[in-house]
Amino acid sequence: MAHGERTRTGMILSCCQRLLLTALTTLLLVSFHPVSALSQAFESRAPRAFLYDVNSRTVLYAQRAEERFAPSSMAKMITASVVFDQLSEGILDRDTLFTISEDAWRRGGAPSGRTAMFAELGSSVAVEDLLRGLIIMAGNDAAIALAEGVAGTESEFAGLMNARADALGATGSAFTNATGEAEPGMHTTVRDLVIIADRLIAQHPDGYAIFGQPEFTWNDIFQRNRNPIYGQIEGVDGLFAGFSEEAGYSVIGSVVRDGRRVVFALSGVDTPEGRVDEARRLVRYAFEDFRTVRVAEPGEPIASARTHGGSSREVGLMAAEGALELLLPSDGVERVRARIIYDSPVPAPIAQGDEIGRLLVERDGTIIQETPLVAAEDVETGTLVQRARDGFMELVFGWLPPISFAGSL
């Protein structure tokens, strides 16, 4: 018997009223993929901007988030991500030595006049030190040396960069080299940069710690961390900045305050000072204009879904991990809607912890948060009579009973 997809929705009317749920039929995309810029009082001065709260998995702001532009030096973030992956998989060791080729030295080192760690031609440098040169100094010589050491050539390494980006869901990006040097076909989006940064931080915490180091000395040349917002905004602990004639001044940053992390990317600012100011505005908005509302404690069901052929006619739904918390704007909460979607009815047997559906939170038609919902208890296969009853109900009524929702804000 076919099971039709049922979607349920609710509007947040006030902090004390329940979410009212009614049937819907539209399935939207996940929280990292807004369908339009959020309509809200705050407006970024950067042409392209994306602001994301990591703890609650909430999009706080999006402006032209899918628009492509040249990544410039920010491409080094995916370069670092690929190397971290290889270290985690045991393909590389931090003590592995790579040789500084003439191309790495001439095109990325001292003769280039560009950002460099100033590794000497023909020298052997450990992966650990090359990573520091790449991340702290934004060294192009370090990026090329890592690419050649890992994949043989920089072009082959670019294939690994693209594969990594695709695996993360950063599908609006394409990389042709490890440094971010402008080339045809090289592009990214602010949304993709945030995705890459978020996964790098989560999957490689030890490697990510390098981003927070204030300085590095190599070949007797002392250099401070080249991230322009490092030390300028409270709680910044990474990542990269970039500039190109086409895209202007850009930055991808991460800020932690009181255990809460936000990641943001902006692009298209006219001046380096304006880039820092706009980053500061985004961070202030993230930490001052939102509040956290706990909807349910860990393990507490927030709704129940109808079952088919089970010993119970309903199964409770709860957040997959921990408490269910929503990050809501201090103003304009009346424009926030929440809805639960799941395939209705849910066929038995059902094991506790099975993923059943999702809670989607929307603001002005854009999904800003998504929470997986799982079964709160086991539901065994029902008796012959119970299964026959459910089959009859589906045949006659098409399974349109309302879903019950236990949460309130």
Short note summarizing the structure:
The chain has 409 residues and is an alpha+beta fold. It contains nine helices and 20 strands.
Tell me about this structure.
The chain has nine helices and 20 strands. It has 409 residues and is of the alpha+beta class. It has two domains: 5-35 and 294-405, Peptidoglycan synthesis regulatory factor (PBP3), Domain 2 (Sandwich), CATH 2.60.410; 48-288, Beta-lactamase (3-Layer(aba) Sandwich), CATH 3.40.710. The strands form five sheets. Strands 1, 2, 13, 14, 16, 17, 18, 19 and 20 form a nine-stranded mixed β-sheet that branches. β13 (303-308) and β14 (314-319) form a beta hairpin. The two termini are 37 Å apart.
Using the coordinates above, name the CATH class of the largest domain: Alpha Beta
The CATH homology group name of the largest domain: DD-peptidase/beta-lactamase superfamily
The CA-CA distance between the termini, in Å, is 37 Å
Spell the H/E element sequence. Answer: EEEEHEHEHHHHHEEEEEHEEEEEEEEHE
Strand content: 25-35%
Please mark out the parts with pLDDT under 50 across 5 or more consecutive residues, or reply none. Answer: 1-40, 399-409
Overall mean pLDDT score? 83
